Structures are given as structure tokens and as C-alpha cells.
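Quick question: what would this complex look like in 3D?
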Amino acid sequence: MSPETIPKLLQTLEFTKDLPPEQLEKLAELAFEVSFPEDFTIFRETDAGELLYLIKSGQIALYVSVPGKGRKTILTLGPGQLLGWSSLFPSSRKTASARTVTPTEAIAFNAAQLREAMDEDKDLGYAILWRVADVIASRLKATRLQLLDIFAPGREC
Amino acid sequence: MTTLKIDVPYMARVEGEGALNIIVENGEIKHLELNIFEPPRFFEAFLRGRSFMEAPDITARICGICPVAYQMSSAHALEKILDIQVSPEIRALRRLLYCAEWIESHALHIYLLHAPDFLGYESAIAMASDPELRPAVEMGLRMKKIGNQLLTIIGGREIHPLSPTVGGFYRAPTKKELQALRSELEWGLEASIKTVAWTATLDFPDFEPDYELVSLSHPDEYPMNEGRVISSKGLNIPVEEFEEHFLNEHVAHSNAVHVYHRDHGSYHTGPLARLNLNLDKLTPLAKKALEDSGHAFPSNNPFKSIVARAVEVVLAYEEAIRIIDQYVRPNPSRIEAIPKAGEGCHITEAPRGMLYHRYRLDDEGIIQACRIDAPTAQNLKRMEDDLWAFVPQILQLPHEEATLRCEQLVRNYDPCISCATHFLKLNIVER
Amino acid sequence: MPEFTPNIGAFVSIQKSDLQRVLEALKQAGFTLIGPTVDESAIVYGEIDGIDDLPIGWTDRQEPASYRIVRRQDEAFFGYTVGPHSWKKFLFPPKQRLFRVEKKNGSFQVVDEEEPAPRFAFIGVRGCELQAIHIQDRVFLGGPYQDPNYKARRQQVFVLAVNCTEPGGTCFCASLGTGPQVGSGFDIALTELDDTFIVEVGSEVGATMMRNVPWRPTSAFELQQAREALATAVKAMGRQLDTSDLPDLLYNNLEHERWNQVAARCLSCANCTMVCPTCFCNDVLEVSDLKGEQFERVRVWDSCFSIEFSHVHGGNIRPHTRARYRQWLTHKFASWIDQFGILGCVGCGRCITWCPVGIDVTEEIDAIRGEV
Amino acid sequence: MKRKIKPDVKSKPKLAVFKFTSCDGCQLSLLDAEDLLLDIADAVEIAYFVEARDRRLPGPYDVTLVEGSVSTPEHIEQIREIREESKFLIAIGACATAGGIQALRNWRNVDEFINIVYAHPEYIDTLETSTPISEFVRVDFELRGCPISKYQLLDVITALLIGRQPRTPTYSVCIECKRRGTPCVMVSRGIACLGPVTQAGCNAICPSVNRGCFGCYGPMEAPNTDSLGQRLEALGLAPAEIVRLYRNFSGYAEAFRLASDAYEEKIA
Amino acid sequence: MLNTITTATGPTPDAGPMRTHPARIIAIKEEAYAIATYEIEFEDPALKEAYQFKAGQFNMLYLPGIGEAPISMSSDPATPQVIGHTIRYAGNLTRAISRLQVGDVIGVRGPYGSAWPLEQIEGDDLCIVTGGIGLAPLRPVIYHVLRHRERYGRVFLLYGARTPDDMLYEDEFESWKQQGIQLYLTVDRADPSWRGHVGVVPMLFYLLRLDPKKTTVLTCGPEIMIHFVIYEAMARRIPKERIYVSMERNMKCGVGICGHCQFGPHFVCKEGPVFPYAAIEPFFGVEDF
């Protein structure tokens, strides 16, 4: 895959598709492609985290290890979705481990470089932060819904 | 065989919880007790501080089988304090209500609780599985149902009726409502006459203790709601003197207090006593049914209580029909009670015998003290005395049968243990 | 006595005691007379035999949570307002078997009722009450499915209506236009004057029932008296309700603080829905014998104030009184219009009088409107 | 005299009836189902019912009815054993579901009570309190009332025989009262009535005989005792009267207990 | 008002719309834990012949001695002689049904309620979003779409269950996929062997590229799930007129005269259970409404 394809890719991914061309270009400069085989651990819970990923294809499971109960998958991510948002925040640690379910291709960013770019170009920073916030918000909503255990058996007529 | 140990840890077919323990060694009774372990409920204690208007409702809860008796004794006792004279119409309706309770309670006892003893069944339900006896059980159930229906029409429901109160009834039924039951009552009257004949054919052990029989006596009628206390040994006192003559004691093996006559000791109250002492007040058909039974009364054979009870059912049906035919709906249905301080007592004839209530009120009508002597408490000492006298007679019987005979002897009294466990020793603690 | 019956639409006058003749005619025609009668503490609707059973000389005093019957100075036949009962208990009984089910050869069979519907003549239906019957007509007969039980009773009811000249302390029919004058749909409508009834004939059957009644044409003076009595009644009504913009007012205030306040008072006891002449909610119970061979489907009055009413799997939709009161009030005054094209309230005031704690719907709506 | 006990041929559900501290009235309701008593005896095996029969079959029991409140130390042991033996345990009546009228002791000193009633208090072994069955074991269903309604009891037994979860209404007495057409006694006569906070099931008998409900079926679902209490005061009831009204046959049930306690504080 | 005097005896009301009809169980298929599909047919041949239903409608099922409950049809509306109901054993009636066997009889009346607007949405991309047993009333839609595949654009089925074991109709998934349904499955709680998605159903939207101009959303499941589905759909600019929701309320009579299933101005048994979201928006999400 050649570097020229990255801007095109960014145009199609849900996370980045509405960004203006110049911002896409800046991002493309920072981005590099990665691929992972099946059952590959991308990062672990409590890792500091240096990279963020936009998933191009494949499926990734986020899991936490519960002492005595083993790994509990809490969420899976697929094409278009952001993986490793916490890397963007320097003091943050990974809240879950990520492991590929299927062979996965993604576009990766170095978090430090991305932060730097966002600081330099406030418009870009603003746009990215909005998107990240949205992702976090949607994860939060989904987590709440999951907590409700809405399919648990109840009384019926 | 002269050694016998009878141990009935939990008496069946009686209301409430009691046990029977008898030990006979070498022909001598070493130990005999009717152990009442029904836990106490302290009615006399928590009635203190309640309004007089609540007494009929609360005391009714002493017994689910004869709540009307409690309502009647308490209402009459309180009316004496409050100077309430009920109208003749209310008086008649109260007698009708009592008839209903006698029918219901007696039919229950005759067919469901007592008859199995005579016929060798463990229950009426087992009796009903015998095709020959099923019609009798069904008849008994229907007789009982009619009593309950009458209770429901007058009192709103069969157990713990709601309408009877101090001064009369919250609501008096219409004549139409009562008449709706008339044909059933006529059926019941017929059935009750058959019942007397049926009970007369039962097998009665030969046993006639020297009883003091005690009951109410009324100049004009078979006693229910009013009368003087008389006995077969010449007692004749107004109810106000009851506590002078009848004392109670608390024994170790019983949560029920024993009531006894201060001079003569144990005594017998209930249908047998009532019938023996009021033969001249029987209604015509009841009198005839008794005559036709071929059993001579007065009789001191406690096993013949079942006959006495059956005769009283005839009487209750007869009286019910008469009262309904002459019924005038009381208006007002109750005399308004104005609270005032005072003390009063009363006795009415519960199905199981005399039920004594005494209350003391303050000027707001709040109960300050009360005493309740239930019929079963009055009979408990007599039951034990009966057993003392009876046991030597059955020592030769197989153990199982001897046990049953003893139980049957207790059941002659239709004991209501729930009733018997709430007594106030009068001369005790006044707060 | 004229030989002919009055025409439909005619106003004629009769002696008050001759109302008995109308009632006799109805009985002869096979109607069971249902009318007001004095029970121990209220004027209730029940089977009556003739005018002697009517609450002649009685009236009632009503205010929130209070109702008392009292003697009148005069001997008016219909000198009361409305009591605890409404006519709905005769058309839509509080408890009614719909049909039976019998198990048979490994299957079962529905057994229809064999009792013909009773034939009622309602004596003394007020304008608000007639409107309530029309409203229940829409509920039970107006949709794609008709209720056969209601229909069988309803289609043979004779309505003897009475113009209301005795509005009560909790009434507000004038605000809703459902009274005090009766609208359409009666067989006979009476207006009570001191010595006479003015009779308006509303149907052929109504006319027939006048066959044996001595009547004379109503005078202009009498008509004037009747008009004045009705005008006075409008003014004497104890309550008013501003109905403007009602559905939106309520729909737009589903989170109004007032719902919390009323919920603190409301007992959720359901009295309002039970006495309401239009409330129709019902439940069907399954009743079975011990052997499991015979079954009955029994319909009973239900209420949106019970928690079970809005049960769905996993819980109840309206667990708190606030939600249940809101449901009732918005149904009655807003969504009823969406559902049946008509307001669910007729202004009879029963829900105000018979609420044990005197919650007043007119006051609640005013509060939400911001006028308290 | 031989005892004739007919063995039950087919296997029928076993019914047991146990009694704790009570007046026997609720179990009597079973005998008061006169028309159906023999049908019940046909449909179930009455394995334990001391009031009606001598025979006592051992558990386990399919359906157990428990009457009465827990008021002695032995009761606690007994009810646990009964629970072990019971598949479906139903507490019947105000005593078993709320402690009964004898729970009035729970507000007082029991020693004092014993002294009032008995000459020899040392003979009496009783607990400080009279409490519902559910205080000690899991209860599968509760039938309220003082006494219970035999119709509800039959309905519950029928439901269990058919295989339906028994259900009894939890709404107010008012609904039943209005269904039977009784004009409200509180509104039309000013009589204090607990109907609006009491659970239905009795068919609203009290108002039908011109008196107010005194709450023997215990609190309805989410009762608003505060609001009713205010109304009762407006009707002229003194706080002491309100205490007595709530503190009745089901007075120890939580909502009524709290309501009566609140008014008692007002007096103090 | 009477027009004429009717006969003195008067009419006898029959069971009317509440009449239930015996229907025999001809097959029972276990779908998941405590969930099975019952195929039934009316005993009365004429009724069996005449009966028709639309996708999304429900019947009132009845058992003597137990009672009635509304249950959606889950079978193919093109073959209405055999009616399928997928039932979760959770309440009185459904638990009693769980004790029935093939050959037993239950009572049926219906069909009731509104249907998914299958004709109206022809030509659209369909996004079917459902969770738990909510798939049952949407299975008839899938059957219809498969029968008339050419009439619809892309079809996405987003389906969530509590665990992999709780998935309904798994044996049909392959065939659905082969016929052009894009199937996205997810579970709330996964065991290690599950290779599919984990997370709540609305999260599956992130995997799709929907065309808001031609996508119609059909959703059924717990009300709270529907909330999030609507949120995600609207976030993707799908107009509320093209979001269809199947609502649950306490349907007791099924014919709009018992009052239990009211939802604001609507009777869910009559105007529902399927509503365009636009029709219920003002009331959807009002607490305890």
C-alpha cells in the first residue's frame, strides 16, 4: 500500500471523512498503516499507550481481566472506529486490553505527534477533539445500556 | 394391663393447640395433664387503652369459630356501663345472629370434628370417602353453610362479622335479605331433626360423672344472650356475681387459666349443661326431636354432648325461622353510645358454654381493665377431672383405642383452645 | 285528555303525579325501571317501581370530598344533582361474565351467554350523564370492534332525561356545554316546574309512552320559566373550567411541578375513575373451577390508578402516583380527544365530590395553566 | 374401634395447614368452603391439617398454608422446618402476614403484659414480639385479611392446581367498594375509613355495612397514609384515634406501622 | 334513543371480539433458553383458510384457567395457515404454554394491531435493529423481504442478544445471509468462544455506511434499546418518519376497549404496536408515561 492511499482512506473512514482536505493531508502525513494477525494483543490494560488507531478492516475485542473470572470482552470495534483514544491524553492509561479477533488493518498515529499537530493547528485540534469526545460519549452511552442488562429475564404476562 | 402411657402431643380436631399426657402405673394415675401450649395473645392487656367501640371487633379475634359470642358478651357488658337499652328489634336480631353461630359451630363440631370419633374415622374427609357416610357429611356441610350464610347476611361475613357492635348493628339486614334464606333454613330444620336421630344411634360409653352443670337461664326462652347463672347444684346468681363464685388459677402446664367454682371445684358448661338445665325452654320441634331420640335427659354422660348439640341445632333453626318471620328491621339499627366511665360485665352462651366479659371504662370510653373467661377455660379443669375418672375405665383397652377414647372425651367439650388462652387474673396488677 | 300522542319535538305539560303513568307504560312495555332513589346516605341509581321510589323532597350538598343528602323545602322529584352512581354501571356493569369456556375432547369450546340483555328505562338522566353515555357509545361501539355486551344493553335503553335545575357545588357542565340542558339522544326529556313537568318528546317510543298520559300544550309562560331555571342553573354551578387549548396545555406540561404536588395528595385509590361516568378501563379475569374443566372470562372495572394496570414485562410503566394521576388527567382532558374526537369529561363533578381527599380537576388544570 | 384410613391411590398434590399464634379463623375458611371442601379433598391430599383430621403425613408438601404469627422461640424453629418441607408456602391472614392483633404487644413491654394476664408469669415462654412469617423464612405468597377471604383462598388453590401463579389484587379497597356500588362512607357520612390505603380482597364489606374500613387487609401498593391522615384529621379525628385506627389487625405492617408511629409522635 | 320498541326479551350478547378460537399446536421448536417457537393451526377449517396476518401484528393467545397474553406472529405471513409464535417463558401464560406439547390446544384471537409498512418502504434500504426476543415480530419482515428481495435495496439486520446462547433463529442466519441480508450480531455478555461482536446493538451502527436518503429503520426490543437506536439513526440523519418502532404496552383486550395499552393519544393494540417514530416522538421518553 502506498502512502498516497492514506488520504483517500481517511476520506472514507467515519471518524475523519468530513475533515477539510488540508486537515486530512496533515493527518495523512502523521499516519502510517499497520496490520495485525488474528488473536494479536495490540495493547494491554494499564499500558501507557503511544498510538491511536483508526480501524480499516477487521475486528478488535476490548477486554478486561477479572481476577478469578478470566477475560471479559466488553466491546468489539470494527471498521471506521477509533481504537486507543486514551493515548491522546498524556496522563491516561489504557482502560482495557485490545486484541484482534480477525486479522486487522488500521491506520495508526503517534499520539505525541498528533498532539503536537493539534497544538500547532488549533482548527485541526478542535476538530479532532470533537470527534474523540463524541467517541467517548458514545462508548459511555453504550456502557450504560450494557450495564442495564436489558435482556435479563423479567416477569411477563 | 395396668400400665398406660398416653401421649398426644398435638390434639387434632380441636381449635387451637393442646396436648394430652397421662401416665398410669400399676393402675394408678401418676400424671395427668391437658397441656395447653397455644401461645398467649394477651388480649386483656392490649385492650387497655383501646376504645370501647373496638372491643367487639378485637375480642372477636380471640376465636375464629365463635366470634359472635365475643361480640355479644362484650357489647352487652359495655351497654350496661353506657346505659344503653337496645330495642326489641335489635334484641331479636342478636338472637338470630347467635342462632346462626350455633348452627355453624355445632354443625362443624358434630359432623367434622366429633362424629369421626364415634365412627372410627380419623376425619370427616375420610368419612366422606365411605359412600354410606358421604351423604351425612354433605348434609352436615350444608347445615353448616346455612348458618354461615345467615351470619353473612347479618354480619357481612361468616368469620369475624362486621356489623354487630355496641348498641346494635352498623347495618341491619332487610327483611327481604333474610327471607331469601328461609327455604334453606327449613331444609336445615329438617336436616337438624335427622341429625338428632343420627347422633342418637351412636355408641356412647357408660360414663356419668357427678357434674356441676352451669349455664344461663332465662325466664322466657332457651338462653343465649341473657339470663342468670344457674347450676345443677343449686346456684342461682346474677351475672354480676360471677367473679365472686368463680375463681381462676394459673397452672404450670397450661397457657390457659383454669376457672373453677370456689366451693365445688370444677364444673361443666356448654350444650350438655344448657340442655339439662333448660329442658323446659326447648322449642317444640327440638323438644320432640329429643324425645324421639330415645335418650333420657337430663343426662350427665359427656359423650352425649353430641346429642345435646344436635338438639340445639334444631332449636337454633326453629328460632331462626320464627325470628325471620316476625322480623321488623331495627330502626335505628344501633343505639348511639355516649362514652362514660363505669364497670360492667355480662355472660352469653357461646356454642361451647358461658362466656364472661367484664370491662372498666374511663369517661372517654377508653378501656382501663377487662377480664374474659372463655368457656373452654371454664371446662379445662373439668376435662382433667373427667379424665381422672374415665381413665381407670379404659385401662384394659388397646393403647391406640384408649388414647382415642381420651381424646374423644376431651372433644366432647368441643374445646376451643384459642379461646382459652387469654385470661386476666382479676386481682392482679392494676397499672 | 287528547286522544293522540304528542309529536316528536313537541313540548307538552303534564301533572307531576302523572309521571307515574309514563313509568307504568314503560313497565308494561317490558322495561326495568332504573332511577334515583334514596339509599341510607345518598341518592343512588337502582331499580325503582314507580314515582314513590324517587327522591321526592330530597337534595344533596356537594363539595370536594363531601356529599350529604338533605331535605328540601319543597317536594321536587328531581331536586338533587348527581349521586355516587352513574348510568354506566347498567350498560357496562362493574362485573360481568363475557362467556364461558368448557374443556372438551382435548380441546375447548366457547359457550356464549344465554341470558338476554336486560331492558332498562333510565329515569332522570341529566344532560351531563347523557353526554357520558354518548361518550361511552364511541368507546364501545365507535371503533372497528364493537362490544356486544354494551351494545345489547345500549340499543334497547329508554332514556327519560331531566333538564338540570339543581347544579351542585362541584359541577361544571356549563363550561363543557354538556348541560344543564340535555342535548340529543333522549326519548323523553322533562323540565321540572313547581306543579308540572314540561315534557319534550324525543322519539317515537317516547311519544308512545305518553299514550295514557293527560297532557296539554306547554304555555309560553312555562317555557319561559324553564328557560329561566336553566339560566339560573348555569350561574349556580360550583365550578368552572377553561377548556381552551386543553390537549396542548397538558401535552406541553407533562413535566409540570404540579404533578408532584397533586401526587402528594392523591391516594391512588381510584375512586375518581370508578365514579366517573365515562371511564371505561376494564380487565378480564380468568375464573376456573377446582377441577380445571369449567372457566369463565369475567370483565371487571379497572383503573389506571392501579400499578398492575400498566404492567409490561419487566415492570410497570407508571410506578408512581405522579405518573398515574397525570395519565388519568391527560387522558380525560387531552388524549381522549385524539382517541374519540371528544373530551372525556362531562363536568358532572363526581370525581371532585367523591375523591376522599377532595382533589379538584378544575383546580389542577387551572394550576397547570398557571392561574392559581 | 379400628381406624379406617383409606389410602390415597393416585398421587395428588399434598396440602398442609399449619398454625402459629392465631384465632384459627383463617384455616377455618377452608372448612367454610362447604360446597367445595370435598372437592378440595378430592383434588389434593390434605396431608396435615390438625384442625380437621388426625392423620399427619410427613413432608414434603406441595402447598403449605401457614396461619398465625411467630410469637414463641419454638415457633422460629418450627417455621424453618416447615419451610424446608414446603414447595410453595403461603402465609394466610393478618397474623401470618403482619403479626396480627397480638402484634400490639410489639409497641409495649411484654413482661408487663404477661403480668396482667397470668398469675404465674414464670410459666409463660414468649417472644417480645409477634411478627409475620416472612420475618423468618421466605414466603411464596401472602393472603391478607383478618380473616382471609375464602374466595381468595379457593382462587389461590385453584390457580396452583391449574398451574398458574396465584395473583391477588394489590390496589385499594375503594375499587371493590365502588364496583359493588356502595356510596363512599367517608364522603357521604364523614366516617373515618382506611379503604383508600388498604389492599382489596375482602369485597369492601365494612362500608357495605355502614362502617369505615379498619385496614385488616393491610396496606395497598404504595399507600399514601400521609394524605389520608390529613383527611382523617380534617374529619375531626384526634391523633390518638388515628393511631388506633392504623394500629389494628394489620397494624404492624410497615406502612401502617410508620403511619401510626408518626401520629404517636404527634401526641408526644 | 330508541327508534322502535325492540322485542321484550332483547338481544343476547355473544362473545364478540373477545371470542377465542381453539388452535392446535403442530410443532414446537426450541430456539434458546426458555424460548420456543410454536406453530399452530386453527381447528376450524374455515377459520384456518380465512386467517391472514401482516408482519408485525399480534394474536391474543389464551389457555383455559390461565388467561390471555399478546404474542406477535413470528412466521411467514405468506403462509398464514400455519401461524408461528415465538414465546419466552416468563409469565403465567407463557410458562403454562411451556408445559404444552404438540397436539395440545390453545385459544387464539387476532390478528390485531398495525404492521410494518412493507409496501410503503419498497425500494428503500432496510436497517432492521432488534434485540432479544424483539427479533420475533421482525422475522416475518425478513421472510417477506426474502420472498421479494428485488423490491428492497440493501438489507441490514442488526441483532443483539444477552449471550450467544440467547440468539434466536440461528439456524436460519446462513440462509438469510446467502439471500443478501447483511447480518450483524452482537452480544452483551460473551464467553471466550464467541468470535462475534460484543456490545449493545446500537453500537453496530458504527459499522454501517447508511444512506440517510433511502434508509428505513425498523426496530423492536426493550424500550430503552429503542431509545438508543433512534438516537443513532437520527445521528445518521435518518428522518424520524422513516424510523418505525414496535412498542410494548399492556395489551389486554387487543381491540381498543380496555384502556390498558394507552400511550398518550394512542392505543398500542390498535394504532400500534408499529408506529412511525414521528407519531410518538412527543411522548417517547417522557418519564413513566
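Answer marked as accepted. Confidence is low (pLDDT under 50) at residues 1-9 of chain D.
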